[in-house]
Protein backbone atom coordinates (compact mmCIF):
# COMPACT_ATOMS: atom_id res chain seq x y z
CA UNK A 1 0.00 0.00 0.00
CA UNK A 2 2.89 2.34 0.65
CA UNK A 3 3.82 4.28 -2.44
CA UNK A 4 7.26 2.74 -2.66
CA UNK A 5 6.41 0.22 -5.36
CA UNK A 6 8.91 -0.29 -8.14
CA UNK A 7 8.95 -1.96 -11.52
CA UNK A 8 11.07 -5.09 -11.39
CA UNK A 9 14.11 -4.90 -13.63
CA UNK A 10 14.92 -8.53 -14.31
CA UNK A 11 18.13 -9.80 -15.81
CA UNK A 12 18.08 -9.54 -19.60
CA UNK A 13 21.30 -11.38 -20.37
CA UNK A 14 19.99 -14.92 -19.95
CA UNK A 15 18.77 -16.87 -22.95
CA UNK A 16 15.38 -18.15 -21.87
CA UNK A 17 14.26 -21.60 -22.89
CA UNK A 18 11.04 -23.45 -22.29
CA UNK A 19 10.53 -24.38 -18.67
CA UNK A 20 12.48 -27.42 -17.50
CA UNK A 21 12.45 -29.44 -14.29
CA UNK A 22 12.86 -27.11 -11.36
CA UNK A 23 15.88 -27.55 -9.05
CA UNK A 24 13.95 -27.88 -5.79
CA UNK A 25 17.01 -28.86 -3.77
CA UNK A 26 18.99 -25.78 -4.77
CA UNK A 27 16.02 -23.47 -4.22
CA UNK A 28 15.71 -24.90 -0.71
CA UNK A 29 19.43 -24.22 -0.15
CA UNK A 30 18.90 -20.65 -1.34
CA UNK A 31 16.07 -20.01 1.12
CA UNK A 32 18.02 -21.76 3.89
CA UNK A 33 20.80 -19.21 3.27
CA UNK A 34 18.36 -16.29 3.38
CA UNK A 35 16.87 -17.53 6.64
CA UNK A 36 20.24 -18.22 8.26
CA UNK A 37 21.46 -14.70 7.45
CA UNK A 38 18.27 -12.87 8.54
CA UNK A 39 17.53 -11.75 4.99
CA UNK A 40 13.99 -13.00 4.46
CA UNK A 41 10.99 -14.26 6.38
CA UNK A 42 7.99 -15.26 4.30
CA UNK A 43 6.64 -17.66 1.73
CA UNK A 44 7.01 -18.23 -2.01
CA UNK A 45 5.31 -20.21 -4.75
CA UNK A 46 5.86 -21.06 -8.42
CA UNK A 47 3.20 -22.45 -10.78
CA UNK A 48 3.32 -23.90 -14.28
CA UNK A 49 0.15 -24.68 -16.28
CA UNK A 50 -1.99 -24.08 -13.21
CA UNK A 51 -0.06 -26.51 -10.98
CA UNK A 52 2.17 -25.52 -8.11
CA UNK A 53 5.69 -26.80 -8.78
CA UNK A 54 7.44 -25.21 -5.80
CA UNK A 55 6.49 -23.70 -2.46
CA UNK A 56 8.53 -22.79 0.60
CA UNK A 57 8.10 -20.86 3.84
CA UNK A 58 10.90 -19.46 6.01
CA UNK A 59 11.17 -17.65 9.32
CA UNK A 60 8.54 -16.95 11.95
CA UNK A 61 4.99 -15.71 11.80
CA UNK A 62 5.59 -14.50 15.38
CA UNK A 63 9.14 -14.09 16.66
CA UNK A 64 8.20 -13.57 20.31
CA UNK A 65 6.62 -17.02 20.59
CA UNK A 66 9.00 -18.53 17.99
CA UNK A 67 6.03 -19.75 15.97
CA UNK A 68 7.33 -20.86 12.59
CA UNK A 69 5.70 -19.86 9.34
CA UNK A 70 4.31 -22.53 7.03
CA UNK A 71 3.05 -22.49 3.45
CA UNK A 72 -0.44 -21.98 4.91
CA UNK A 73 0.58 -18.82 6.79
CA UNK A 74 -1.30 -15.72 5.61
CA UNK A 75 0.43 -12.40 4.91
CA UNK A 76 -0.93 -8.95 4.17
CA UNK A 77 -0.28 -8.48 0.46
CA UNK A 78 -0.59 -4.69 0.31
CA UNK A 79 -1.13 -3.25 -3.15
CA UNK A 80 -1.50 -6.64 -4.84
CA UNK A 81 -5.04 -6.13 -3.50
CA UNK A 82 -5.51 -3.63 -6.34
CA UNK A 83 -5.42 -6.45 -8.90
CA UNK A 84 -8.39 -8.11 -7.18
CA UNK A 85 -10.26 -4.80 -6.98
CA UNK A 86 -9.61 -3.99 -10.65
CA UNK A 87 -10.94 -7.42 -11.64
CA UNK A 88 -14.10 -6.83 -9.61
CA UNK A 89 -14.61 -3.39 -11.18
CA UNK A 90 -14.36 -4.89 -14.67
CA UNK A 91 -16.73 -7.66 -13.59
CA UNK A 92 -19.19 -4.92 -12.59
CA UNK A 93 -18.77 -3.40 -16.07
CA UNK A 94 -19.56 -6.78 -17.63
CA UNK A 95 -22.66 -6.97 -15.44
CA UNK A 96 -23.73 -3.47 -16.63
CA UNK A 97 -23.44 -2.11 -13.09
CA UNK A 98 -20.83 0.40 -14.18
CA UNK A 99 -19.17 2.00 -17.20
CA UNK A 100 -15.50 2.85 -17.53
CA UNK A 101 -16.57 6.28 -18.78
CA UNK A 102 -18.73 7.01 -15.72
CA UNK A 103 -17.55 10.17 -13.94
CA UNK A 104 -16.50 10.09 -10.29
CA UNK A 105 -19.06 12.85 -9.68
CA UNK A 106 -21.78 10.15 -9.89
CA UNK A 107 -20.53 8.95 -6.50
CA UNK A 108 -18.32 11.62 -4.90
CA UNK A 109 -19.09 15.02 -6.45
CA UNK A 110 -17.17 16.93 -3.78
CA UNK A 111 -13.76 15.63 -4.89
CA UNK A 112 -11.78 18.08 -7.02
CA UNK A 113 -12.25 17.42 -10.78
CA UNK A 114 -14.80 14.69 -9.98
CA UNK A 115 -16.81 15.54 -13.11
CA UNK A 116 -13.68 15.01 -15.25
CA UNK A 117 -12.36 11.88 -13.53
CA UNK A 118 -13.62 8.57 -14.93
CA UNK A 119 -13.57 5.02 -13.59
CA UNK A 120 -10.88 4.39 -16.22
CA UNK A 121 -8.75 7.21 -14.73
CA UNK A 122 -9.04 5.68 -11.26
CA UNK A 123 -8.07 2.20 -12.48
CA UNK A 124 -4.87 3.26 -14.27
CA UNK A 125 -3.81 6.08 -11.91
CA UNK A 126 -4.53 8.93 -14.34
CA UNK A 127 -6.98 10.70 -12.01
CA UNK A 128 -4.64 13.26 -10.45
CA UNK A 129 -6.15 12.54 -7.01
CA UNK A 130 -3.51 13.02 -4.33
CA UNK A 131 -2.13 9.86 -2.70
CA UNK A 132 -2.97 10.11 1.01
CA UNK A 133 -0.23 7.67 2.07
CA UNK A 134 2.40 10.14 0.82
CA UNK A 135 1.59 12.55 3.65
CA UNK A 136 3.62 12.44 6.87
CA UNK A 137 0.42 12.74 8.91
CA UNK A 138 -0.70 9.35 7.59
CA UNK A 139 1.60 7.54 10.03
CA UNK A 140 -0.08 9.38 12.89
CA UNK A 141 -3.49 7.80 12.26
CA UNK A 142 -2.95 4.69 10.10
CA UNK A 143 -3.63 2.36 13.05
CA UNK A 144 -7.08 3.86 13.69
CA UNK A 145 -10.44 2.85 12.20
CA UNK A 146 -11.68 5.09 9.40
CA UNK A 147 -15.12 4.88 7.75
CA UNK A 148 -16.08 5.97 4.25
CA UNK A 149 -17.15 9.45 5.30
CA UNK A 150 -13.84 10.10 7.06
CA UNK A 151 -11.70 8.74 4.21
CA UNK A 152 -13.60 10.63 1.51
CA UNK A 153 -13.29 13.84 3.53
CA UNK A 154 -9.55 13.30 3.82
CA UNK A 155 -9.14 12.54 0.10
CA UNK A 156 -11.32 15.55 -0.80
CA UNK A 157 -9.25 17.88 1.39
CA UNK A 158 -5.97 16.65 -0.18
CA UNK A 159 -7.15 17.77 -3.63
CA UNK A 160 -5.52 17.07 -6.98
CA UNK A 161 -1.90 16.86 -8.14
CA UNK A 162 -2.59 17.22 -11.88
CA UNK A 163 -5.36 17.52 -14.45
CA UNK A 164 -7.18 14.18 -14.99
CA UNK A 165 -5.76 12.22 -17.92
CA UNK A 166 -2.76 14.53 -18.39
CA UNK A 167 -0.31 12.41 -16.41
CA UNK A 168 0.00 9.14 -14.50
CA UNK A 169 0.89 8.97 -10.81
CA UNK A 170 0.36 6.09 -8.43
CA UNK A 171 -2.28 6.85 -5.80
CA UNK A 172 -3.82 4.56 -3.21
CA UNK A 173 -6.70 7.03 -3.02
CA UNK A 174 -7.90 5.81 -6.45
CA UNK A 175 -8.46 2.26 -5.24
CA UNK A 176 -9.95 3.24 -1.91
CA UNK A 177 -12.57 5.17 -3.90
CA UNK A 178 -13.08 2.21 -6.25
CA UNK A 179 -13.69 0.01 -3.19
CA UNK A 180 -16.43 2.39 -2.02
CA UNK A 181 -17.94 2.56 -5.52
CA UNK A 182 -18.17 -1.26 -5.61
CA UNK A 183 -19.90 -1.19 -2.23
CA UNK A 184 -22.39 1.38 -3.49
CA UNK A 185 -23.35 -0.35 -6.75
CA UNK A 186 -23.73 -3.78 -5.14
CA UNK A 187 -24.99 -2.49 -1.78
CA UNK A 188 -22.64 -4.88 0.01
CA UNK A 189 -19.39 -4.42 1.99
CA UNK A 190 -16.12 -4.93 0.13
CA UNK A 191 -15.28 -7.97 2.27
CA UNK A 192 -18.45 -9.76 1.17
CA UNK A 193 -17.97 -8.76 -2.49
CA UNK A 194 -14.45 -10.17 -2.46
CA UNK A 195 -15.86 -13.41 -1.07
CA UNK A 196 -18.67 -13.63 -3.65
CA UNK A 197 -16.82 -12.47 -6.77
CA UNK A 198 -13.34 -13.98 -6.25
CA UNK A 199 -12.86 -16.25 -3.24
CA UNK A 200 -15.87 -18.57 -3.47
CA UNK A 201 -15.84 -19.12 -7.28
CA UNK A 202 -12.10 -19.88 -7.24
CA UNK A 203 -12.24 -21.90 -3.99
CA UNK A 204 -9.50 -19.84 -2.36
CA UNK A 205 -9.08 -21.12 1.19
CA UNK A 206 -6.49 -18.63 2.40
CA UNK A 207 -7.61 -15.26 0.99
CA UNK A 208 -9.77 -12.60 2.65
CA UNK A 209 -9.93 -8.94 3.62
CA UNK A 210 -7.75 -8.69 6.69
CA UNK A 211 -8.77 -7.66 10.20
CA UNK A 212 -6.57 -7.41 13.29
CA UNK A 213 -3.69 -9.87 12.90
CA UNK A 214 -4.31 -13.12 14.78
CA UNK A 215 -1.39 -15.55 15.07
CA UNK A 216 -3.82 -18.28 16.18
CA UNK A 217 -5.32 -18.10 12.68
CA UNK A 218 -1.88 -18.57 11.11
CA UNK A 219 -1.60 -14.86 10.28
CA UNK A 220 1.88 -13.35 10.33
CA UNK A 221 3.06 -10.26 12.18
CA UNK A 222 5.41 -8.04 10.21
CA UNK A 223 8.95 -6.97 11.09
CA UNK A 224 11.69 -4.56 10.10
CA UNK A 225 15.38 -5.35 10.46
CA UNK A 226 18.02 -2.99 11.80
CA UNK A 227 20.41 -4.92 14.01
CA UNK A 228 17.63 -7.42 14.78
CA UNK A 229 14.01 -8.05 13.75
CA UNK A 230 11.58 -5.57 15.34
CA UNK A 231 7.80 -5.89 15.16
CA UNK A 232 6.06 -3.10 13.21
CA UNK A 233 2.84 -1.25 13.83
CA UNK A 234 -0.34 -2.59 12.21
CA UNK A 235 -2.37 -0.58 9.71
CA UNK A 236 -6.13 -0.72 10.30
CA UNK A 237 -7.53 -2.40 7.18
CA UNK A 238 -10.60 -0.17 7.23
CA UNK A 239 -8.30 2.41 5.63
CA UNK A 240 -6.93 0.63 2.52
CA UNK A 241 -9.77 -1.83 1.79
CA UNK A 242 -9.27 -2.87 -1.85
CA UNK A 243 -6.17 -0.70 -2.18
CA UNK A 244 -4.13 -2.81 0.22
CA UNK A 245 -6.13 -4.71 2.83
CA UNK A 246 -6.18 -8.30 1.57
CA UNK A 247 -4.41 -11.21 3.30
CA UNK A 248 -3.38 -14.31 1.36
CA UNK A 249 -0.79 -17.01 0.79
CA UNK A 250 1.39 -16.96 -2.36
CA UNK A 251 -0.29 -20.19 -3.46
CA UNK A 252 -3.70 -18.50 -3.36
CA UNK A 253 -2.36 -15.42 -5.16
CA UNK A 254 -1.23 -17.63 -8.03
CA UNK A 255 -4.54 -19.52 -8.12
CA UNK A 256 -6.18 -16.13 -8.58
CA UNK A 257 -3.62 -15.05 -11.19
CA UNK A 258 -3.95 -18.27 -13.18
CA UNK A 259 -7.74 -17.92 -13.20
CA UNK A 260 -7.56 -14.25 -14.15
CA UNK A 261 -5.20 -14.69 -17.08
CA UNK A 262 -6.98 -17.77 -18.39
CA UNK A 263 -10.51 -16.37 -18.69
CA UNK A 264 -12.05 -17.80 -15.52
CA UNK A 265 -12.94 -14.42 -14.02
CA UNK A 266 -13.27 -11.95 -16.90
CA UNK A 267 -13.89 -12.00 -20.63
CA UNK A 268 -10.89 -11.70 -22.94
CA UNK A 269 -11.99 -8.16 -23.81
CA UNK A 270 -11.96 -7.12 -20.16
CA UNK A 271 -8.66 -8.87 -19.53
CA UNK A 272 -7.10 -7.04 -22.48
CA UNK A 273 -8.19 -3.75 -20.93
CA UNK A 274 -6.57 -4.74 -17.62
CA UNK A 275 -3.31 -5.54 -19.43
CA UNK A 276 -3.20 -2.31 -21.44
CA UNK A 277 -0.30 -0.31 -19.98
CA UNK A 278 -0.55 3.48 -20.07
CA UNK A 279 2.18 5.46 -18.37
CA UNK A 280 3.47 2.32 -16.59
CA UNK A 281 0.01 1.36 -15.29
CA UNK A 282 -2.64 -1.09 -16.40
CA UNK A 283 -5.79 -1.77 -14.42
CA UNK A 284 -4.29 -3.12 -11.21
CA UNK A 285 -1.32 -4.48 -13.16
CA UNK A 286 2.26 -3.60 -14.05
CA UNK A 287 4.36 -5.27 -16.72
CA UNK A 288 7.65 -6.89 -15.63
CA UNK A 289 10.48 -7.83 -18.03
CA UNK A 290 12.48 -11.03 -17.58
CA UNK A 291 14.88 -11.37 -20.48
CA UNK A 292 12.69 -11.52 -23.59
CA UNK A 293 9.66 -12.48 -21.51
CA UNK A 294 6.95 -10.11 -20.28
CA UNK A 295 5.06 -10.83 -17.08
CA UNK A 296 2.00 -9.09 -15.67
CA UNK A 297 1.62 -8.61 -11.95
CA UNK A 298 1.88 -6.21 -9.06
CA UNK A 299 4.00 -5.39 -6.02
CA UNK A 300 2.78 -4.71 -2.51
CA UNK A 301 4.03 -3.13 0.69
CA UNK A 302 2.23 -2.35 3.94
CA UNK A 303 3.84 -1.95 7.38
CA UNK A 304 6.73 -4.48 7.31
CA UNK A 305 5.07 -6.72 4.72
CA UNK A 306 6.39 -6.87 1.15
CA UNK A 307 5.00 -8.91 -1.73
CA UNK A 308 5.10 -9.37 -5.47
CA UNK A 309 3.57 -11.65 -8.08
CA UNK A 310 4.08 -12.04 -11.81
CA UNK A 311 2.54 -14.22 -14.52
CA UNK A 312 3.83 -15.02 -18.03
CA UNK A 313 0.70 -15.57 -20.12
CA UNK A 314 2.27 -17.57 -22.97
CA UNK A 315 4.25 -20.03 -20.86
CA UNK A 316 1.65 -19.99 -18.06
CA UNK A 317 4.39 -19.62 -15.48
CA UNK A 318 3.77 -17.57 -12.36
CA UNK A 319 5.61 -16.72 -9.16
CA UNK A 320 4.58 -15.03 -5.93
CA UNK A 321 6.47 -13.80 -2.88
CA UNK A 322 4.85 -12.79 0.40
CA UNK A 323 7.05 -11.55 3.22
CA UNK A 324 6.64 -10.38 6.78
CA UNK A 325 10.30 -9.41 7.06
CA UNK A 326 12.76 -8.66 4.27
CA UNK A 327 16.34 -7.48 4.72
CA UNK A 328 17.34 -7.52 1.05
CA UNK A 329 15.97 -6.45 -2.31
CA UNK A 330 12.85 -8.58 -2.90
CA UNK A 331 13.58 -8.20 -6.62
CA UNK A 332 16.58 -10.52 -6.17
CA UNK A 333 14.28 -13.24 -4.80
CA UNK A 334 11.93 -12.78 -7.77
CA UNK A 335 14.82 -13.21 -10.21
CA UNK A 336 15.92 -16.45 -8.53
CA UNK A 337 12.38 -17.88 -8.62
CA UNK A 338 11.95 -17.10 -12.31
CA UNK A 339 15.43 -18.31 -13.19
CA UNK A 340 14.64 -21.62 -11.50
CA UNK A 341 11.18 -21.79 -13.09
CA UNK A 342 12.79 -21.60 -16.53
CA UNK A 343 15.29 -24.33 -15.70
CA UNK A 344 18.39 -22.16 -15.38
CA UNK A 345 21.14 -22.37 -12.81
CA UNK A 346 21.67 -19.63 -10.23
CA UNK A 347 24.16 -18.74 -7.51
CA UNK A 348 23.52 -18.88 -3.78
CA UNK A 349 24.91 -15.74 -2.10
CA UNK A 350 27.19 -16.23 0.89
CA UNK A 351 26.33 -12.86 2.51
CA UNK A 352 29.87 -12.57 3.84
CA UNK A 353 30.68 -9.34 5.61
CA UNK A 354 33.83 -8.17 7.37
CA UNK A 355 34.32 -6.85 10.88
CA UNK A 356 35.46 -3.22 10.88
CA UNK A 357 37.08 -1.70 13.94
CA UNK A 358 34.92 0.79 15.84
CA UNK A 359 37.58 3.49 15.52
CA UNK A 360 37.33 3.30 11.72
CA UNK A 361 33.52 3.41 11.78
CA UNK A 362 33.64 6.54 13.97
CA UNK A 363 35.65 8.33 11.26
CA UNK A 364 32.69 8.07 8.90
CA UNK A 365 30.14 9.65 11.25
CA UNK A 366 28.62 12.97 10.24
CA UNK A 367 26.19 14.80 8.00
CA UNK A 368 26.80 14.43 4.27
CA UNK A 369 25.40 16.68 1.53
CA UNK A 370 25.42 16.35 -2.25
CA UNK A 371 24.89 18.88 -5.04
CA UNK A 372 23.49 15.99 -7.12
CA UNK A 373 20.81 14.91 -4.66
CA UNK A 374 18.37 16.91 -2.48
CA UNK A 375 18.53 14.31 0.30
CA UNK A 376 21.11 14.79 3.04
CA UNK A 377 22.49 11.62 4.64
CA UNK A 378 23.52 11.22 8.27
CA UNK A 379 26.02 8.47 9.07
CA UNK A 380 26.29 7.25 12.67
CA UNK A 381 27.29 4.20 14.71
CA UNK A 382 24.64 2.39 16.77
CA UNK A 383 25.40 -0.72 18.82
CA UNK A 384 28.60 -1.26 16.84
CA UNK A 385 26.79 -1.06 13.47
CA UNK A 386 27.27 1.71 10.91
CA UNK A 387 23.89 3.28 10.14
CA UNK A 388 22.69 5.65 7.42
CA UNK A 389 19.63 7.89 7.49
CA UNK A 390 18.48 10.07 4.60
CA UNK A 391 16.52 13.21 5.52
CA UNK A 392 12.89 12.38 6.27
CA UNK A 393 13.47 8.61 6.09
CA UNK A 394 14.12 5.76 8.51
CA UNK A 395 17.67 4.75 9.41
CA UNK A 396 19.08 1.57 7.88
CA UNK A 397 22.14 -0.59 8.69
CA UNK A 398 25.17 -0.85 6.43
CA UNK A 399 26.99 -4.17 5.99
CA UNK A 400 30.75 -3.90 5.62
CA UNK A 401 32.25 -5.42 2.49
CA UNK A 402 35.65 -3.88 3.35
CA UNK A 403 36.89 -1.14 5.66
CA UNK A 404 35.71 1.49 3.16
CA UNK A 405 32.88 -0.22 1.25
CA UNK A 406 29.42 -0.83 2.72
CA UNK A 407 26.09 -2.00 1.33
CA UNK A 408 22.37 -2.09 2.06
CA UNK A 409 21.05 -4.98 -0.03
CA UNK A 410 17.36 -4.28 0.53
CA UNK A 411 17.58 -1.11 -1.58
CA UNK A 412 20.57 -2.09 -3.69
CA UNK A 413 22.67 0.68 -2.12
CA UNK A 414 26.47 0.71 -2.01
CA UNK A 415 28.42 3.40 -0.10
CA UNK A 416 32.15 3.96 -0.44
CA UNK A 417 33.87 6.20 2.14
CA UNK A 418 37.05 8.25 1.89
CA UNK A 419 37.76 9.38 5.46
CA UNK A 420 40.83 11.38 4.48
CA UNK A 421 38.87 13.49 1.98
CA UNK A 422 35.68 13.52 4.06
CA UNK A 423 33.61 12.19 1.15
CA UNK A 424 31.38 9.28 0.33
CA UNK A 425 30.08 7.88 -2.94
CA UNK A 426 26.59 6.40 -2.99
CA UNK A 427 25.69 3.97 -5.79
CA UNK A 428 22.21 2.74 -6.59
CA UNK A 429 20.45 1.46 -9.74
CA UNK A 430 23.50 2.14 -11.90
CA UNK A 431 23.79 5.74 -10.72
CA UNK A 432 26.54 7.33 -8.62
CA UNK A 433 26.22 10.33 -6.29
CA UNK A 434 29.03 12.22 -4.60
CA UNK A 435 28.61 13.45 -1.01
CA UNK A 436 30.79 15.71 1.17
CA UNK A 437 30.87 15.62 4.97
CA UNK A 438 29.80 18.92 6.49
From TrEMBL:
<dbReference type="InterPro" id="IPR001466">
    <property type="entry name" value="Beta-lactam-related"/>
</dbReference>
<dbReference type="Pfam" id="PF00144">
    <property type="entry name" value="Beta-lactamase"/>
</dbReference>
<protein>
    <submittedName>
        <fullName>Serine hydrolase domain-containing protein</fullName>
        <ecNumber>3.1.1.103</ecNumber>
    </submittedName>
</protein>
<dbReference type="InterPro" id="IPR012338">
    <property type="entry name" value="Beta-lactam/transpept-like"/>
</dbReference>
<feature type="domain" description="Beta-lactamase-related">
    <location>
        <begin position="33"/>
        <end position="327"/>
    </location>
</feature>
<dbReference type="InterPro" id="IPR050491">
    <property type="entry name" value="AmpC-like"/>
</dbReference>
<keyword id="KW-0378">Hydrolase</keyword>
<dbReference type="GO" id="GO:0016787">
    <property type="term" value="F:hydrolase activity"/>
</dbReference>
Amino acid sequence: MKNNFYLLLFLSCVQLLTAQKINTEKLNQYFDALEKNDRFMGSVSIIKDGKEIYSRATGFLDIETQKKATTQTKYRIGSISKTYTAAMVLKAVEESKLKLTDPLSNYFPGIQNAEKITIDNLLNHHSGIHNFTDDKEYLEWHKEFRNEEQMVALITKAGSDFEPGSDAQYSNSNYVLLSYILEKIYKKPYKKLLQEKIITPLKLKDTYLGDFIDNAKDEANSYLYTTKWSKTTETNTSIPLGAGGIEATPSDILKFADALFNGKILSQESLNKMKTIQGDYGYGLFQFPFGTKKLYGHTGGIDGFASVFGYETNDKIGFAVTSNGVNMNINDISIILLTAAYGHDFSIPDFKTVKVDASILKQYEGLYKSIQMPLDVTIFVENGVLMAQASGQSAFPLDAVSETNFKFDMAGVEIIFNAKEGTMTMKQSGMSFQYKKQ
